[in-house]
Design a protein that fits this description.
Blueprint (H helix, E strand, L loop, with lengths): L1 E2 L7 E3 L7 E3 L1 E5 L5 E6 L19 H9 L10 E4 L6 H9 L3 E5 L14 H6 L7 E8 L2 E9 L3 E6 L8 E7 L4 E7 L1 H9 L2 H11 L9 H27 L8 H14 L33 H4 L7 E9 L8 E6 L14 H5 L2
Parallel strand pairs: 6-7
Antiparallel strand pairs: 1-3, 2-3, 4-5, 7-10, 8-9, 9-10, 11-12, 13-14
Length: 355
C-alpha cells in the first residue's frame, strides 16, 4: 500500500491493512524483497486490451500474475509463489506450460466439486489430530497438479505443480491448551511455501522504516515518492548482494545507505550552491576510522573522489588532520568536504584524501 488520502480514482480502502487508505500496488518480488515488476490496482485488471494475443483469460486476479510473469525466463526452473487471491488450477496449468513452476494457497471454491476438502467443523467432529494432511492429484489441461490439505489451527489448502505432501517432517508449533511447544507433522509443500513466500511483506517492512514523508496535495507526487523508496531499497539489496559475493565484512545498513546516497547525490559533481551541514559517513579505507563523539564525519568516497571543486582554504583555527593515521595539525581544509587536511612539504594528506 502507498498510503495517501488524496482524492483520486486509484485510491483504495482496505480496512484490514495497517494503512487503510492509499494506492494498492501488485508487486513481483523475490524472497529477499527485491522488486522486479509492479502494477497499480485500478479495478480494470480484466481489461482485454491488457492481455497479449497468446495469453488466456483466467480471471481478473489470475491475469495479474500472468502479466507480471512476462519478465520471468521460461523453462529455467523458476518458481513462482502467490496466495489464495490469485491461485487457481487454470493458472498453475498455464504457468507449467510456460515452463514456470508455481505454488500457492488456494480457496476451496476454486477447486471444483470433485475435490471434497473437509471443513474445520468436520475435522473437529471427527477429532482429527493436529498435523493431519491429505493429498489429491488432478490433471488440468495436461498438467498434474497436487493439492494438499494440512490441519494446523485451521485447515490450510495449497496447490502446486512441482511439490507435494511427501516427505512429511516434524515442526515445532505452540499449543494453547498445553501451553507449550509440541512437535507436529508438516507436509513438504507447506515448508517450501513458508520458506519462499513473504517477499512482498519484506519489501513493505523495508519501505516502512525510512520512507519519504512529504505531505502534498498532488496525488501523483505521493506515488512518485513511493517509487523512489522502492528504487532505493532495490539498490540497497543489490549492494548487499555484491557485498556477499565480495565477502564484505560490514555492509551498510539501510539507514546509513540512504544517508550516504543522499549525501553523494547532493555533493558529487560541480556544485552550484554551497551546502551547510556535517559531511556524511566514511567509506572504504577511511571507514576504518571509527566515529567518536564530537568528531567530524567524513564524506563518502563518491564525494571525495569526484574531482570537482576540492579547493584548499585557510581556516581561522589550527585543527587536527582528519586523514586516518595522521596526527598533525593544520590550518588548511577542503572547501567542499569541510575536513581539515595537512598540506605542507612533509605531509600531503590533502592529495591522499581525494585519491
Amino acid at each position: 500500500m502507498c498510503a495517501t488520502k488524496a482524492s483520486n480514482i486509484l485510491r483504495q480502502y482496505l480496512p484490514n491493512k495497517p494503512h487503510k487508505w492509499g494506492y494498492k500496488l501488485l508487486v513481483l518480488c523475490d524472497d529477499r524483497g527485491f522488486a522486479y515488476d509492479f502494477e497499480i490496482y485500478s479495478g480494470m485488471e480484466n481489461d482485454p486490451e491488457l492481455r497479449d494475443s497468446s495469453e488466456p483469460d483466467l480471471g481478473a486476479s489470475s491475469n495479474i500474475v500472468v502479466r507480471l510473469a512476462r519478465c520471468i525466463p521460461r523453462n529455467q526452473q523458476y518458481r513462482l509463489f502467490f496466495d489464495n487471491y490469485y491461485t487457481s488450477p487454470e493458472l498453475i496449468s498455464y504457468l507449467a506450460k510456460e515452463g514456470i513452476l508455481s505454488l500457492g494457497t488456494v480457496s476451496k471454491g476454486r477447486l471444483g466439486k470433485d475435490v471434497q476438502i473437509p471443513s474445520l467443523k468436520d475435522l473437529k467432529k471427527d477429532k482429527v489430530e493436529r498435523g493431519f494432511s491429505e493429498e489429491w492429484v488432478a490433471n488440468v489441461d495436461g498438467t498434474d497438479i497436487v493439492t494438499v490439505m494440512w490441519y494446523d489451527n485451521k485447515p490450510v489448502v495449497l496447490s502446486s505443480s512441482f511439490v507435494g505432501q511427501e516427505p512429511i517432517q516434524l515442526v515445532r508449533r505452540y499449543c494453547k491448551k498445553q501451553k507449550k511447544y509440541i512437535q507436529v507433522d508438516c507436509p513438504q509443500i507447506v515448508k517450501v511455501y513458508n520458506q519462499h513466500m513473504g517477499g512482498v511483506d519484506l519489501l513493505d517492512s523495508f519501505l516502512g522504516k525510512y520512507k519519504i514523508k512529504i505531505r502534498t496535495k498532488k496525488w501523483y507526487l505521493r506515488l512518485f515518492y513511493h517509487l523512489i523508496d522502492v528504487i532505493v531499497v532495490n539498490s540497497w539489496l543489490l549492494y548487499r548482494r555484491v557485498g556477499e559475493q565480495k565477502q564484505t565484512p560490514t555492509p551498510l545498513k539501510l539507514k546509513d545507505f540512504k544517508f550516504d546516497l543522499g549525501k553523494s547525490l547532493c555533493m558529487c559533481g560541480p556544485s552550484i550552491t554551497k551546502k551547510r551541514g556535517r559531511p556524511s559517513s566514511m567509506s572504504d579505507q577511511i571507514e576504518i576510522k571509527k566515529k567518536k563523539p564530537n568528531t567530524a564525519i567524513l564524506p563518502p568516497r563518491e564525494v571525495r573522489c569526484d574531482g570537482f571543486e576540492h579547493f584548499p582554504i585557510w581556516g581561522q583555527k589550527r585543527q587536527r588532520c582528519k586523514y586516518p593515521g595522521c596526527k598533525g595539525k593544520t590550518f588548511i581544509s577542503c572547501e567542499k568536504c569541510r575536513v581539515e587536511l595537512c598540506f605542507n612539504k612533509d605531509n600531503n594528506c590533502f592529495r591522499n584524501f581525494h585519491q
